[in-house]
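Researcher: Following up on the earlier apo prediction. This time include the ligand. It's nicotinamide-adenine-dinucleotide, with the SMILES given after the sequence.
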Amino acid sequence: MGREGAILFAAAGAHVVVVDIRPDAGAEVVDQIAGGGGSAESHVVDMTDLDQIERLVSDVGKKHGRIDVCGTTPVPRGRAGSSSTATCGTSRSTSTFVRRCF
Ligand SMILES: NC(=O)c1ccc[n+]([C@@H]2O[C@H](COP(=O)([O-])OP(=O)(O)OC[C@H]3O[C@@H](n4cnc5c(N)ncnc54)[C@H](O)[C@@H]3O)[C@@H](O)[C@H]2O)c1
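Model: Understood. Below is the ligand-bound prediction.
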C-alpha cells in the first residue's frame, strides 16, 4: 500500500520520502520512482518507534523545509489510541512541518 501511494504521489509531481524498516524495500521503491522519471529518497526507520519518527521528520524538515503529506500504515507503540493521524499530530517535531496525515 505504501509503495503504491508513493508511486502515485511521485507521478503527481511530489518529491517522495520513502520510509521502510528494510533498506532494500525502500531503495526498491525509490528505484521504481526514479525509473519512471520521478523524484524520491529513502530512509530506514522503524515507524513504530516515536524517537526514530521524530528524528526522521526533523531531518526531512531541515532538508526540505516542510512535509506536505504524511502517510503511514505502521503505528508507534505505547500510545493509547494511536492511529496514523495521531502519529503525525502528536509528534513534537511533526506538528511543525506536516500539513496532512493519513
Ligand atoms: N494490501 C492491502 O490491500 C491492504 C488493505 C487494507 C489494509 N492493509 C494493511 O496495510 C498495511 C500494509 O499492507 P501491505 O499489503 O502494503 O504490506 P507489505 O508487506 O506489502 O508492505 C509493508 C511494508 O512495510 C514495511 N514495514 C513493516 N513494518 C515496518 C515498520 N515498523 N517501520 C517501517 N516499515 C515497516 C515492510 O518492510 C514492507 O516493506 C498492513 O497493515 C495491512 O494489513 C493492506
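Model: DSSP finds five helices and four strands in the chain.
Researcher: Noted. I'll compare it with the apo version next.
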